[in-house]
Amino acid sequence: MEENRISRFAKLIKDSKNIVFFGGAGVSTESGLKDYRSEDGLYKTVKQYGVSPETILSRSFFEAHPDIFYDFYYNYFLNNTVEPNRAHFALAQLEKVGRLKAVVTQNIDGLHQRAGSKNVIELHGTVLKHFCPSCKTEATYEQIKALCGKVPLCEKCNRVIKPAVVLYEEPLNEQVITSAIRAISSADLLIIGGTSLAVYPAADFIRYFTGENIVLINREETQYDRRAALVFRDSIGEVLNETVKGLNSN
Fold this sequence. Notes:
alpha/beta, 16% strand, 2 domains, six-stranded parallel beta sheet
């Protein structure tokens, strides 16, 4: 990772007044979070459950097979001890000093908030909240995790509790969409990290950016590489951490 490119990144941050971060799974995998979309994860899922992760995480499958859904959900989203990494903490620091205005994330793990970020727009919801689709009674993350993959039932109406995540076959929340578009369209610097920009409709939000500069941090090529002022193929945690350290030292 070239030092002069980190310096250029730091200068872009200094020269910007409204920075927004748009992130994906690559931000959380550096914390050790399981990636069920990887070849290894996909193979294990199909072998164990007989269907793809996308099928299990669909609304129709949730309703038809809540036992299989919650076994998978527990194994991949609750049965871990992951902590925020350098990327999460660097972004929280940028927000704390008033440079970063919003984090728009495709992740559902809540790691941005645990690192200290306040304005987090979660496109696909969060595993930190659960509710009854019928009477809206809420259940805590700790209550669901303590069941170790068993199906949680509402204490009031006995319906299956649902995670507050957007499943396949479900639309994104309209208020969340509005907030994401408003944040991205008003940004003068957009930092994109840990995402191939291949998941729709979330990736469509990037087209609302009309600012001057994009900085892309991703291991693989994306459709926006040519438009970016800077492209990093390095660890997102390392890039953001070194850049924030550079800001603090000047």
